[in-house]
């Protein structure tokens, strides 16, 4: 099986809708950059972090975990069987992290100082670690994607018009990279996995410092471990989810052979996550807060229920073998982890002085949805241009 | 080929050890020593009459626009509970006094200047610093506006300019850093007409607080707020009513950054865990590759696709 550019038209009715959503988000972004955060968001001094940090950044990083989990599986453990998933997962991670970085830029007040952490260090800060790791990992992801660019454009660089003069030098660069990269790529791949484990867990450490402002259902010293485990757990379901959507959208046969074996690995990982999550609840004597059945308790129950149902589904061979069931089960894991991040960053954050509950504004939601739409649009463009998706019985473009 | 890979393996490990020594150095430089003579303020809520002169003086000292001092005698502001904001770094709130309804209790709120500040620990770029004298100040040139300090602060003190796109500020009480450099008292302490605010060494004001509670045990509850809360604060309070009734959060004695810093330093202890993980993954990769099909002897066959195409 060889990856090749997807032969499809770019514009479809669905794509048109995505473009409208993206433009709507961009309009609100413009307001945010002209008039400040207050003009678009419902954030205030009581709730300094909202939807953009909880979903765009925290959930975004978690849902891009397919990148490092697949790299670990295929490159580190050398399971060649799964080779076909590496490039789509890598592309998702690359685009996902690009958007995380973008979302951070949108959310921080002084976006023009985003580079400050590079030279102003605070080793005590979990946020510093997350920031630095994400910056380096993003670079690593781009390096990991270079072979795809080389494969597509080496000997074929053909820029239009005045840019023509760049053709030769660009091709030269690609050829030099092609000579050096294969020998050193393993360094980047392992580095990428290490960086991912570091910042996926540190993302959990972020809220630990909020101390008593965090609801006891979520506030635990093992938050970093829970974040790491849930990120690993959502990696494969995310790959399955995307692969099934992509094959439907591009009218291709789903790669069930690979996806089924991927799916059969999900249940054990979910079991480990659930064991720590529930075990922690009892060890800290926090189960009593579930029995209160207030909003926080219900959100916690919902988060846990999604993961437990998904776990039970993934246990059965029937789920793993049917595209539809596999899709449903994967979606449940994704929803569970997404809700976990929302809970940790928004629902659990329950400060002492809290005059009104934070509900994201229409503008905040528009920007988040717009970003996701834009991400899908770019993904579609990339798989049409570059050899990312592998199909059986399709010959490589020559 | 195998040899080369083993050599690479050792090379990268050596690189990791070099990083580790570097990390050890940077980890140590973070903690500034607190002076034995570090400052503090005792807020005696039983003495405060709620004149709000401190609010006015604070604004003047920090170049925040304000109305005349006379307007501050308006008591209607007490109807609503107020919090510090961008345009008011300290505010006074009024609470009912069950013992004497004619003498309501007034509580001034501002940054507590924690002994072990969460905001300083959290700040991604180190824009907030704990000075030797105990005050916590914010550095305009470093701040990126991420608002993590606001997430971290147990007293919910730092405020943010939500209405500005360019140059938004994090603002909070800076213990009148500039005034004190010129030998002056903090503006609020300076103006307080009946000495509800006592400025001095933290150890000294703590001693005074203990004495007052001891002498007038019928007036004060036996609790010095800020002596131990989240590891202690520079501003300490005594009151005739339980502090949770005065809307002061009930806090644990452990410093807020304690757990998160131990986690951080645990994960990064001399960079050993990440380097070990790297070495472990490299070993797994090496072993898996050796065990793999003999046909693919090329160890770095990440680019199997390209190779396949070329050949």
Structure in words:
The complex is a heterodimer of chains A (398) and B (311). Chain A has 398 residues and is mainly alpha-helical. Chain A has a single domain, classed as Up-down Bundle (Formate dehydrogenase/DMSO reductase fold). In chain A, 69% of the residues lie in helices and 2% in strands. A two-stranded antiparallel ribbon of chain A has the order 1-2. Chain A is globular, with a radius of gyration of 22 Å. Chain A starts with a strand and ends in a 7-residue tail after the last strand. By secondary structure, chain B is of the alpha+beta class. Helices cover 35% and strands 11% of the residues of chain B. Chain B contains ten helices and nine strands. In chain B, strand 4 (128-130) and strand 5 (136-138) form a beta hairpin. Chain B has two domains: 1-30 and 267-293; 39-118 and 156-255, Alpha-Beta Plaits. The chains are: A mainly alpha (398), B alpha+beta (311). Chains A and B meet through helix 1, helix 2, helix 4, helix 7 and helix 8 of A and helix 1, helix 3, helix 4, strand 6 and helix 8 of B.
């Amino acid at each position: 099986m060889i990856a090749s550019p997807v032969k499809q038209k770019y514009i479809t009715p669905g794509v048109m809708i995505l473009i409208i959503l993206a433009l709507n988000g961009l309009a609100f972004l413009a307001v945010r950059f002209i008039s400040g955060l207050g003009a678009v968001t419902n954030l205030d001094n009581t709730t300094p972090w909202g939807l953009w940090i909880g979903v765009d950044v925290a959930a975004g990083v978690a849902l891009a975990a397919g990148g490092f989990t697949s790299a670990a599986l295929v490159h580190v453990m050398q399971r060649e069987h799964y080779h076909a998933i590496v490039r789509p997962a890598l592309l998702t991670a690359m685009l996902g992290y690009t958007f995380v970085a973008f979302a951070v830029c949108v959310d921080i007040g002084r976006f023009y100082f985003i580079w400050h952490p590079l030279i102003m260090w605070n080793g005590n800060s979990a946020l510093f670690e997350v920031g630095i790791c994400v910056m380096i990992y993003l670079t690593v992801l781009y390096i990991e994607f270079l072979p795809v660019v080389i494969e597509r454009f080496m000997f074929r660089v053909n820029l239009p018009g005045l840019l023509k003069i760049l053709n030769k030098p660009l091709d030269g660069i690609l050829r030099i990279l092609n000579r050096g990269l294969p020998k050193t790529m393993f360094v980047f791949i392992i580095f990428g996995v290490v960086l991912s484990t570091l910042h996926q867990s540190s993302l959990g450490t972020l809220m630990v410092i909020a101390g008593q402002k965090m609801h006891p259902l979520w506030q635990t010293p093992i938050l970093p471990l829970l974040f790491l485990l849930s990120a690993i757990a959502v990696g494969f379901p995310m790959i399955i989810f995307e692969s099934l959507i992509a094959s439907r959208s591009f009218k291709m046969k789903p790669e069930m052979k690979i996806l089924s074996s991927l799916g059969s690995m999900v249940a054990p990982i979910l079991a480990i996550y659930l064991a720590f999550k529930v075990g922690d609840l009892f060890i800290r004597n926090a189960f009593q807060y579930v029995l209160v059945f207030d909003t926080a308790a219900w959100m916690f129950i919902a988060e846990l229920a999604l993961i437990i149902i998904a776990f039970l589904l993934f246990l059965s061979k029937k789920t793993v073998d049917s595209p539809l069931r596999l899709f449903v089960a994967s979606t449940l894991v994704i929803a569970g982890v997404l809700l976990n991040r929302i809970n940790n960053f928004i629902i659990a954050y329950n400060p002492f002085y809290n005059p009104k509950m934070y509900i994201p504004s229409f503008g905040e939601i528009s920007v988040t949805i717009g970003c996701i739409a834009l991400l899908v649009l770019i993904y579609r463009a990339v798989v049409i241009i570059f050899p990312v998706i592998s199909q059986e019985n399709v010959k490589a473009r020559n | 080929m195998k040899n080369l890979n083993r050599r690479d393996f050792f090379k990268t490990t050596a690189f990791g050890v070099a990083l580790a020594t570097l990390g050890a150095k940077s980890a140590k430089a973070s903690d500034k020593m607190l002076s034995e003579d570090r400052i503090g303020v005792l807020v005696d809520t039983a003495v405060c009459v709620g004149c709000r002169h401190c609010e006015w003086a604070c604004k003047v000292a920090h170049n925040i626009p304000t109305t005349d001092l006379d307007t501050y005698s308006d008591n209607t502001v007490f109807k609503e509970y107020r919090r510090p904001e961008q345009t008011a770094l300290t505010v006074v709130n009024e609470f009912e006094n069950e013992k004497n309804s004619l003498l309501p209790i007034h509580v001034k709120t501002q940054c507590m200047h924690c002994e072990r500040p969460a905001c300083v620990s959290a700040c991604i770029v180190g824009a907030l610093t704990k000075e030797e004298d105990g005050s916590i100040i914010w550095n305009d040139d470093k701040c990126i506006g991420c608002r993590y300090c606001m997430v971290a602060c147990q007293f919910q003190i730092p405020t943010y300019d939500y209405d500005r796109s360019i140059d938004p500020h994090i603002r909070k009480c800076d213990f009148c850093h500039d005034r004190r450099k010129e030998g002056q008292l903090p503006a609020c302490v300076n103006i307080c007409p009946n000495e509800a605010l006592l400025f001095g060494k933290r150890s000294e004001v703590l001693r005074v607080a203990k004495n007052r509670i001891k002498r007038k045990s019928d007036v004060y509850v036996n609790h010095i707020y800020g002596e131990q809360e989240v590891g202690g604060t520079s501003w300490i309070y005594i009151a005739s009513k339980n502090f949770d009734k005065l809307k002061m959060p009930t806090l644990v004695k452990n410093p807020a950054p304690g757990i998160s810093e131990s986690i951080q330093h645990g994960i990064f202890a001399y960079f050993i865990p990440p380097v070990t993980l790297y070495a472990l993954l490299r070993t797994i990769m090496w072993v898996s590759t050796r065990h793999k099909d003999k046909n693919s002897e090329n160890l770095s066959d990440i680019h199997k696709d390209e190779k396949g195409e070329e050949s």
